[in-house]
Amino acid sequence: MNHTADAVVIGGGIMGASVAHFLAKKGAGKVTLVEKRSLAAVSTGHSAAVVRTFYSNPLTITLARRSLDMFENDRDMLGGDCGFKRIGYMCVFNDHSAAPSRHVLGLEKAQGVDAREISPSEIQDLVPPVHVGDLVGAIYEPHSGYVDPTKTTQVLCHSAKEYGLDIHEGTGVIGIKTEGNRVAAVKTSEGTIATRVVVNAAGPWGRAMGLSVGLNYSLRWSRESDLVLDRSEKVGDIPLISDPTSRTYMRSNGKNEILGGRGFPKELEPMDIDNYNPILDPNTRQRIEQGLFQRIPALRQGKYIRGWASIYAITDDWHPVVGPEPGLDGYYAFFGGSGHGFKLGPPLGEALSDIILGQTPTTDIRAFRPNRFAEGELFTSTWGGGNRA
Ligand SMILES: Cc1cc2nc3c(=O)[nH]c(=O)nc-3n(C[C@H](O)[C@H](O)[C@H](O)COP(=O)(O)OP(=O)(O)OC[C@H]3O[C@@H](n4cnc5c(N)ncnc54)[C@H](O)[C@@H]3O)c2cc1C
Fold this sequence. Notes:
The chain has helices at residues 14-25, 58-72, 74-77, 98-110, 120-126, 149-159, 206-211, 282-295, 341-356, and strands at residues 7-10, 31-35, 50-51, 89-93, 116-118, 137-141, 145-146, 166-169, 173-179, 182-188, 191-194, 198-200, 220-230, 240-243, 248-253, 257-262, 303-314, 321-325, 328-335.
């Protein structure tokens, strides 16, 4: 291990991998990424990795558009093939959820996003096995899709080795050391690395890392599960479907599989992030399956293949904290994906690398600054508090 670095990134999920990639590529010097387990081992590797632009504020739409652009051009922009599959996205709605859905469509249209409202019969044409029931329409984004989250993280990291990125898996950070009002070093299980730039991308442990330098982040953790079914022959490929009525989301997963999970509105499931069962529990499996079968009855004939549980790290306004901390030079926060952080990782990592290097980022991400909570400038959601972004 090098004992000095120009920048140290703590955490090898999508957030850490993204900022480390862009820092190295933009010539930040010796960049070291330290991961206590292996790349993408926690939330990132268990993500549904849906990349869509259907968001209730203009900045998140802008970043999600940038993300889609990056994944569509992954070899040039992210260093390799991330397994992007453009299968389209639809958020279906009934009378209750029609107004917020149309509001979001208006925000997307204001930015020129290729999204449109479709009727129940168009939903049926696009997804023949769907049970339309009380649905009155859907917002449809033909360009959205999903990627392979583990592959993406590995591509970002390994492609940046040619620019000098130094990666240490199986190495835990014990704490950040300061000198006066600036960071001075990172203490790891394998020794101390002197550095003047530290990015806290420790995901669910972002709060613990912050506490090591006296920063008290408000972060909650919720157990979040997905399952995969071998779809029956009656169910062909389906796009990504968010369904607030059945409270599920689903999408094709490769050739013959359907991936599903519980969708908004949903309650939190508080958890111990240092001691949890990563296997899908029977009760959650039943709830997910009920929702999937309600919307696509033919899925009942599908076969359960696997399921898992992982972590949502949730901030007070369901948006990540990204940026410097006033009063602690050289320290940057980058965590709190709040259930939708995968797609935001690459564009936020790109913008944060510019900020660290003293350059003006293409997208102004000051709204994500950690002290927005103290300043009372929180993100709000069209869907109501504690809900989807
Ligand atoms: C089931 C599920 C489905 C999801 N679906 C989607 C989706 O469809 N689209 C979307 O955009 N988002 C989705 N998300 C959310 C998204 O996956 C997360 O927001 C994102 O992966 C968070 O990335 P991260 O890098 O902040 O955290 P993580 O991936 O958790 O990475 C943090 C890393 O830091 C490491 N670390 C922690 N402490 C230390 C330490 N002291 N020393 C060294 N390393 C340390 C950890 O080992 C970990 O690898 C989903 C999440 C889940 C759980």
